[in-house]
Each structure stands twice: as C-alpha cells, then as structure tokens.
Amino acid sequence: MGYSRYSLWIIGFDSWKLGKSAIFFLVYFFLIKRGSESFFFVYGRPALLLLLGISVIRIVLKWFTNTYSLDNEAFHLKRGIFTKSKRTVPFNKIENTNEHTSFFHRLTGTTSIVFETGMKGDEAAVEFDIVSRTQANELKERVATNKDTEEADETVEVTEHKEQERQVHFRAKKKDLLKASFTSLSFLFLIPLLASFYFKLDDIFGVEEDAEGLVAFLLQSGWIMVTIIFLVILVSIGFGISRTFLKYGGFEIASDSDRIYIQKGVLDATKFSISKHRVQAIEIHQTMLKRILGLAEVKLMSVGEARSDEEKLESNSLYPFLPVHQAYEMIEAILPSYHVTKEMDRLPRASLFIRLMKPSFIWIIGTGVLWYFKPDVFAIPWWTLSVIILLIVSVIRYLDYKHTKYTLNASFVQFKTGGLSTSLFVTKRSKVIEISIKRGFVQKWFGVASVGIVNRSKPVHHSGIEDVPRELAGSFYQWYQGRGKEVERIGR
Q1: Stated pTM of the model
Q2: Are the C-beta atoms of 59 and 15 separated by less than 8 Å?
Q3: 161-184 pLDDT tens trace
Q4: How many beta carbons lie within 10 A of that of residue 344, not counting itself?
Q5: How many CA atoms lie within 13 A of 129 on its CB side?
Q6: Where are the chain's structural domains?
Q7: 21-80 pLDDT, tens digit each
Q8: For the purposes of burial, counting CB atoms within 10 Å of the CB of 54, is it exposed (0-12), middle (13-18) or buried (19 or more)?
Q9: Residue 300 β-bridge partners
Q10: What is the maximum span of the chain, computed from C-alpha positions, in angstroms?
Q11: Which fold has domain 341-492?
C-alpha cells in the first residue's frame, strides 16, 4: 500500500496562516517600536525572525513527513517529524463531512475537507487542509460508496441516484439576506471596527492631536455634523448588508433519504453534511428580537466532533433567520421521524412563586454597590435604583415562568425554556442516554421537581426543566424505562 504526500499547496496554505498570525508582532516590533532601544525589543526582533524561520522549516518538513493512503475500507495516516505516528480511521466511523473554501482556496482553485468521527480527542477527524476540488469529490465518493455498500450492499449507482433525488428545502433569497442583516444587527460591527482602526493609526502615526482638531472644527458646523452622521449611518447599513451577503450568500439547505446538506458563503464558502440517524436532538432558538419578528434558528445536535466549538456551532446550525412556521415545516420535511408539538403544558403557579422568592445575587450585589457609592444618577435616590433592578429581575423571572413549557409523549420529550430569549429542545427517547429527577426542600413543600436529560454529543449535552409538577416526574421515570425495548426494536 503506497502512501502519498499532501498537495504541495499545503506549504503555501500553512505559510499564509503563519503570516496572518505573525503580522501583528511584525508590525509591533519592526514598525511601531522600530526606534525602541529596550532590551526586550533589541533582542526580540531577531528572536522573532528566527522563530518565523524555524516555523517555515517546520512547514516544509511537515509536507515531507506527513503522508496518507486509503483503501476500500479506511484512511491510513502517517505524521510526525521526530516522533512518528500512524493511525487508521475506518470509513464506517465517518459521521459528518465538512467542506470549507476560504479566500486562499479560491485563489488556488482548491478546497479543504474534514471527515468527522464520533471519537474523542485531537485525532477524531481526518483533515485535508488543501486538496483539489476533483480530489475532494473523489474522497467524499469513496467514503459514501463504502458506507452505502456496507449498510445496504449497494453500488455507486445508488449514490448517484441519491444525488439526483436530493431535495432543496431552503435557498436564501435577497429579501432573506436583507432581513438577516438587520435582525443580526451586523451594521453595528462598523463602529468597533473603525475604533480599532483609529487606535492602531494612533499607535503608529500619532494622529490623536490631529483628530481632536478635526472634531473641534466639525462641532462648529451643525450641518457638516448632520451630513457626516447621515453618511456614517448609510455606510454602517451598507457594511452590515455586505457582511451578511458575504457570510450567508448562497445559503442552501437540502437533504436526501440519508443525509442533510448545508452550504453557505460567498468568498469564504462552507459545505456541511450530516447523517440523519446521527441527529440526537433539535433546538429552536429565538432571541427577543427574533421572537418579535417571528424568526428562529434551528440547530441540529449530532455526535460528530468539529475541530472547534465555533465551527460545530456554525456547521450544525440551519439558517439562523428562518420564519418560525417555515422552521417547523422544514424540520418535519428534513427529519420525518421528529415531530415538534406546538401545544405544550405550562408550569404550575407554585413554580412562579418559587422563582420570584429565589434570592437574586445580581440584585443583592447591585444594592450593596449602590448603598456604598450612593451615585447621583439624574437625582434619583440609590434605593430607587435598587427597586428598579429588583423589578427588572422579577420581570425576567416572570417571563421565564411564562415561556417555560413541556411535553412528554410516547417517543419524544420537548422542553421550552428561557426569559428574554427562548430555546425549544426536542429529542427522542431512544437518543437519551441518562435522566435525572431532583427535589429540593422547597420543591417538596410545593409539590414540584426538576427533571433533566443527557444526550450523546461532544461534550455530552445536558438539558432539563425546573419546577414541573411532581406527577410529571413520576411519569418521566416510567417513560424512560421504555427506552430499552425501543432501542432493541430499532436495532433490529
């Protein structure tokens, strides 16, 4: 079995990443502090260059020593410059496929692809940081063909047929992207961006005095200030729209009988696929603004391990600005075995009393700070501010009580929690690996309990609901006892 080296472009790609991480230090040491005679900077400049040189040599040696091979059943990977290691990853362990095309990839006509497994650790995924698009398709086809053959003794024609029957459930249009740009408040990102740019200019060129003079001049003319403010608003809106179009442009959600496919991005494109039977739960999240506008974000919780928490959050999330009714319909279309129930049971009145009476550390600490400093805020007494904080805390707790609901049926459990923002969590009994039922002293007094569930994920996902009726806690335990027979039936 012969081993192959990765694409030669990997040297340029790793050097690109090294340059992006080192640019700040180069500018700081050789431009901002170019005239400094400090011991730290005098010896730090050659040390930085030496470190960069060693890093470049390591990148080249990495290309020489890291190799891979694949047969009809697994990836075989060799890595290490001084310490050698070899590992084999069977195709049947691959659960998700994540393809990412950055700006560098577009310049070189390549892409990156990651095959995620359900294993733990840094070596849980098989990563090809830079491959040709043709090779990426061949790798995906090799993995998919093998899995299909093992599961159903089918041929490549079945895989091609699945490509033809793939159904598109959502494709972002211009109106969707415009709505997303305002809902995400992305136009506000321009303000910290300009502030950061200004401070960097001041560090390099010392522009603070000139800026103060310019501000003083502008304040003398009202119409100039109004015009500038108007232009800043227009530029901010344009920046937000452009940012949203670049991030979510080309967004598409599709599926076939086995997998879910998500792609997004214009300059920095991502393609992600997840096996349907690997989906452990569904979470529908709404911020306060999204709830007002009738929008929601649907997240799929799976057992595949992404390279970072941020990447997993991005890849497992469906379009973050879906209309609520469309989100419910899409879930049933993509995952027919899941069902989201709109009618849910509310908590008893006793749970509201428990929430309101629970000590608030925010209010206690805030009151202590106000009592000590006694600030003069619009001539309002400090104790009035304390009362306002208490009212805000109480309102949030009331909203948490109002929004918290639950449903327990033969095969599913559904929790909805949250105050200002809400989260609807749906999972199957067969996907739950552990449950918990807890009752504190106060809960026993009022006849309520807290229930929780654990789903398999990376890391394991905990969810639950507090202060449900005591009767539900008993039913919850009986409901979970039926999991064994259900898992056995599915296994057959």
Answers
A1: 0.73
A2: yes
A3: 445 578 898 888 888 888 887 777
A4: 15
A5: 19
A6: 1-65, 176-248, 341-492
A7: 898 888 888 887 787 888 888 888 899 999 999 999 999 999 999 999 988 888 999 988
A8: exposed
A9: 282
A10: 81
A11: PH-domain like (2.30.29)
